[in-house]
Amino acid sequence: xxxxxxxxxxxxxxxxxxxxxxxxxxxxxxxxxxxxxxxxxxxxxxxxxxxxxxxxxxxxxxxxxxxxxxxxxxxxxxxxxxxxxxxxxxxxxxxxxxxxxxxxxxxxxxxxxxxxxxxxxxxxxxxxxxxxxxxxxxxxxxxxxxxxxxxxxxxxxxxxxxxxxxxxxxxxxxxxxxxxxxxxxxxxxxxxxxxxxxxxxxxxxxxxxxxxxxxxxxxxxxxxxxxxxxxxxx
Length: 234
Prior knowledge:
Elements: E1 2-6, H1 25-38, E2 43-46, H2 57-72, E3 78-80, H3 92-99, E4 102-103, E5 106-109, E6 113-117, H4 143-154, E7 159-163, H5 181-191, E8 194-199, E9 206-210, E10 213-217, E11 230-233
Parallel strand pairs: 1-2, 2-3, 3-4, 6-7, 7-8, 8-10
Antiparallel strand pairs: 1-11, 5-6, 9-10
Helix pairs in contact: 4-5
Protein backbone atom coordinates (compact mmCIF):
# COMPACT_ATOMS: atom_id res chain seq x y z
CA UNK A 1 0.00 0.00 0.00
CA UNK A 2 1.22 3.50 -0.84
CA UNK A 3 0.28 6.66 1.05
CA UNK A 4 0.99 10.13 -0.36
CA UNK A 5 1.60 12.73 2.34
CA UNK A 6 2.04 16.50 2.24
CA UNK A 7 1.54 19.43 4.57
CA UNK A 8 1.22 23.19 4.89
CA UNK A 9 0.34 24.17 1.35
CA UNK A 10 -1.37 27.36 2.64
CA UNK A 11 -3.31 27.88 -0.57
CA UNK A 12 -4.70 31.45 -0.85
CA UNK A 13 -4.49 34.55 -3.05
CA UNK A 14 -2.26 36.45 -0.62
CA UNK A 15 1.39 37.34 -1.15
CA UNK A 16 3.94 37.17 1.65
CA UNK A 17 7.22 38.99 2.21
CA UNK A 18 9.00 35.83 3.29
CA UNK A 19 9.84 32.47 1.72
CA UNK A 20 6.19 31.35 1.48
CA UNK A 21 4.81 31.25 -2.07
CA UNK A 22 1.09 30.33 -1.91
CA UNK A 23 0.64 31.49 -5.52
CA UNK A 24 2.58 28.36 -6.52
CA UNK A 25 0.57 25.99 -4.36
CA UNK A 26 -2.11 25.00 -6.89
CA UNK A 27 0.56 24.05 -9.43
CA UNK A 28 2.50 22.13 -6.79
CA UNK A 29 -0.59 20.22 -5.71
CA UNK A 30 -1.43 19.31 -9.31
CA UNK A 31 2.14 18.17 -9.96
CA UNK A 32 2.06 16.12 -6.77
CA UNK A 33 -1.29 14.55 -7.69
CA UNK A 34 0.05 13.61 -11.14
CA UNK A 35 3.01 11.91 -9.44
CA UNK A 36 0.72 10.15 -6.97
CA UNK A 37 -1.49 8.86 -9.79
CA UNK A 38 1.52 7.62 -11.76
CA UNK A 39 2.84 5.84 -8.66
CA UNK A 40 -0.44 4.12 -7.83
CA UNK A 41 -1.04 5.91 -4.54
CA UNK A 42 -3.91 4.36 -2.56
CA UNK A 43 -4.61 7.26 -0.17
CA UNK A 44 -3.54 10.85 0.39
CA UNK A 45 -3.05 12.47 3.79
CA UNK A 46 -2.71 16.23 4.20
CA UNK A 47 -1.20 17.01 7.60
CA UNK A 48 -2.87 20.40 7.88
CA UNK A 49 -2.98 24.02 6.73
CA UNK A 50 -4.25 23.12 3.29
CA UNK A 51 -5.53 26.72 3.14
CA UNK A 52 -4.44 30.06 4.57
CA UNK A 53 -6.95 32.45 6.12
CA UNK A 54 -8.15 35.43 4.10
CA UNK A 55 -10.42 38.17 5.47
CA UNK A 56 -12.89 37.79 2.58
CA UNK A 57 -15.27 34.92 3.43
CA UNK A 58 -16.25 34.42 -0.21
CA UNK A 59 -12.61 34.13 -1.22
CA UNK A 60 -12.03 31.52 1.49
CA UNK A 61 -14.93 29.50 0.11
CA UNK A 62 -13.65 29.87 -3.45
CA UNK A 63 -10.20 28.72 -2.34
CA UNK A 64 -11.51 25.55 -0.71
CA UNK A 65 -13.88 24.71 -3.55
CA UNK A 66 -11.11 25.15 -6.13
CA UNK A 67 -8.55 23.02 -4.31
CA UNK A 68 -11.12 20.39 -3.33
CA UNK A 69 -12.31 20.09 -6.94
CA UNK A 70 -8.71 19.67 -8.06
CA UNK A 71 -7.93 17.01 -5.47
CA UNK A 72 -11.21 15.13 -5.90
CA UNK A 73 -10.79 15.01 -9.69
CA UNK A 74 -8.02 12.41 -9.16
CA UNK A 75 -10.38 10.03 -7.32
CA UNK A 76 -7.82 9.11 -4.66
CA UNK A 77 -9.26 8.91 -1.11
CA UNK A 78 -8.16 12.04 0.76
CA UNK A 79 -7.97 12.71 4.49
CA UNK A 80 -7.22 16.09 6.08
CA UNK A 81 -5.88 16.70 9.55
CA UNK A 82 -7.13 20.24 10.25
CA UNK A 83 -4.33 22.72 10.82
CA UNK A 84 -4.50 25.92 12.83
CA UNK A 85 -5.06 28.00 9.67
CA UNK A 86 -7.78 25.65 8.41
CA UNK A 87 -9.61 26.11 11.72
CA UNK A 88 -9.54 29.90 11.30
CA UNK A 89 -11.60 29.56 8.13
CA UNK A 90 -14.19 26.80 8.61
CA UNK A 91 -15.41 24.47 11.31
CA UNK A 92 -14.38 20.88 10.74
CA UNK A 93 -17.97 19.99 9.85
CA UNK A 94 -18.08 22.79 7.26
CA UNK A 95 -14.74 21.70 5.85
CA UNK A 96 -16.00 18.12 5.38
CA UNK A 97 -19.31 19.21 3.83
CA UNK A 98 -17.75 21.63 1.35
CA UNK A 99 -14.77 19.50 0.34
CA UNK A 100 -16.04 15.94 0.69
CA UNK A 101 -12.78 15.05 2.47
CA UNK A 102 -12.46 12.71 5.42
CA UNK A 103 -11.44 14.80 8.43
CA UNK A 104 -9.30 13.66 11.38
CA UNK A 105 -9.52 12.11 13.88
CA UNK A 106 -9.50 9.18 11.51
CA UNK A 107 -8.20 5.62 11.49
CA UNK A 108 -7.52 3.51 8.43
CA UNK A 109 -6.58 -0.15 8.73
CA UNK A 110 -4.95 -2.44 6.19
CA UNK A 111 -4.24 -6.15 6.42
CA UNK A 112 -0.95 -5.51 8.20
CA UNK A 113 -1.00 -1.89 9.38
CA UNK A 114 -3.07 0.75 11.14
CA UNK A 115 -2.83 4.44 10.25
CA UNK A 116 -4.02 6.85 12.95
CA UNK A 117 -4.62 10.55 12.24
CA UNK A 118 -4.95 12.80 15.31
CA UNK A 119 -6.55 16.24 15.54
CA UNK A 120 -4.87 18.51 18.13
CA UNK A 121 -6.69 21.73 17.18
CA UNK A 122 -8.32 21.95 20.59
CA UNK A 123 -7.95 23.80 23.88
CA UNK A 124 -6.95 21.97 27.05
CA UNK A 125 -10.61 21.44 27.99
CA UNK A 126 -11.33 19.77 24.64
CA UNK A 127 -13.02 22.78 23.04
CA UNK A 128 -12.29 22.67 19.29
CA UNK A 129 -10.59 25.62 17.64
CA UNK A 130 -13.16 27.58 15.69
CA UNK A 131 -13.14 30.46 13.19
CA UNK A 132 -12.38 33.28 12.85
CA UNK A 133 -9.24 33.06 14.99
CA UNK A 134 -7.50 30.85 17.52
CA UNK A 135 -4.19 30.65 19.37
CA UNK A 136 -1.98 28.55 17.10
CA UNK A 137 0.43 27.85 19.99
CA UNK A 138 -2.35 26.37 22.15
CA UNK A 139 -2.87 22.86 20.79
CA UNK A 140 -3.96 19.82 22.78
CA UNK A 141 -5.08 16.31 22.01
CA UNK A 142 -8.36 16.17 23.98
CA UNK A 143 -9.14 13.43 26.49
CA UNK A 144 -11.67 11.78 24.17
CA UNK A 145 -8.99 11.32 21.50
CA UNK A 146 -6.42 10.18 24.05
CA UNK A 147 -8.75 7.35 25.07
CA UNK A 148 -9.48 6.62 21.39
CA UNK A 149 -5.75 6.51 20.60
CA UNK A 150 -5.09 4.11 23.48
CA UNK A 151 -7.88 1.85 22.26
CA UNK A 152 -6.74 1.86 18.63
CA UNK A 153 -3.15 1.04 19.58
CA UNK A 154 -3.95 -1.58 22.23
CA UNK A 155 -6.50 -3.42 20.08
CA UNK A 156 -4.02 -4.49 17.40
CA UNK A 157 -0.68 -6.20 16.95
CA UNK A 158 -0.28 -4.60 13.54
CA UNK A 159 2.38 -2.00 12.77
CA UNK A 160 0.96 1.45 13.53
CA UNK A 161 1.73 4.85 12.05
CA UNK A 162 0.64 8.10 13.71
CA UNK A 163 -0.01 11.39 11.90
CA UNK A 164 -0.55 14.87 13.37
CA UNK A 165 -0.49 18.51 12.29
CA UNK A 166 1.21 20.04 15.31
CA UNK A 167 4.43 18.37 16.36
CA UNK A 168 5.19 15.60 18.82
CA UNK A 169 8.95 15.98 18.30
CA UNK A 170 10.46 17.81 21.29
CA UNK A 171 13.40 19.08 19.24
CA UNK A 172 11.40 21.46 16.99
CA UNK A 173 10.69 25.08 17.95
CA UNK A 174 8.62 24.91 21.14
CA UNK A 175 5.54 26.84 19.94
CA UNK A 176 4.94 24.15 17.30
CA UNK A 177 4.71 21.28 19.81
CA UNK A 178 1.41 19.85 21.05
CA UNK A 179 1.05 21.00 24.66
CA UNK A 180 0.38 17.50 25.99
CA UNK A 181 2.94 15.85 23.71
CA UNK A 182 4.52 14.07 26.70
CA UNK A 183 1.26 12.22 27.33
CA UNK A 184 0.81 11.27 23.67
CA UNK A 185 4.41 10.16 23.24
CA UNK A 186 4.16 8.00 26.37
CA UNK A 187 1.10 6.26 24.91
CA UNK A 188 2.92 5.77 21.61
CA UNK A 189 5.98 4.31 23.35
CA UNK A 190 4.02 2.08 25.71
CA UNK A 191 2.00 0.61 22.84
CA UNK A 192 5.14 -0.96 21.40
CA UNK A 193 3.73 -1.18 17.87
CA UNK A 194 4.19 2.37 16.52
CA UNK A 195 6.82 2.41 13.78
CA UNK A 196 6.75 6.05 12.69
CA UNK A 197 5.21 9.40 13.63
CA UNK A 198 4.62 12.05 10.94
CA UNK A 199 3.77 15.74 11.53
CA UNK A 200 3.62 19.10 9.77
CA UNK A 201 3.29 22.66 11.12
CA UNK A 202 7.03 23.35 11.59
CA UNK A 203 7.84 24.56 8.10
CA UNK A 204 11.58 23.73 7.86
CA UNK A 205 10.91 20.08 8.66
CA UNK A 206 12.88 17.77 10.96
CA UNK A 207 13.96 14.17 11.41
CA UNK A 208 14.37 12.72 14.90
CA UNK A 209 14.34 9.47 16.85
CA UNK A 210 12.48 9.40 20.17
CA UNK A 211 12.42 6.21 22.26
CA UNK A 212 13.70 4.29 19.21
CA UNK A 213 10.74 5.50 17.10
CA UNK A 214 11.27 7.59 13.97
CA UNK A 215 9.65 11.04 13.95
CA UNK A 216 9.39 12.96 10.67
CA UNK A 217 8.21 16.55 10.45
CA UNK A 218 7.55 17.21 6.77
CA UNK A 219 8.78 20.37 5.11
CA UNK A 220 5.97 22.78 4.21
CA UNK A 221 4.86 22.66 0.58
CA UNK A 222 4.40 26.46 0.54
CA UNK A 223 8.10 27.15 1.06
CA UNK A 224 10.19 28.28 -1.88
CA UNK A 225 9.77 27.12 -5.45
CA UNK A 226 10.52 23.42 -4.99
CA UNK A 227 7.72 20.99 -4.24
CA UNK A 228 7.59 18.98 -1.01
CA UNK A 229 5.72 15.74 -0.32
CA UNK A 230 6.53 12.10 0.41
CA UNK A 231 5.31 8.64 -0.59
CA UNK A 232 5.17 6.06 2.20
CA UNK A 233 5.06 2.38 1.33
CA UNK A 234 3.24 0.51 4.08
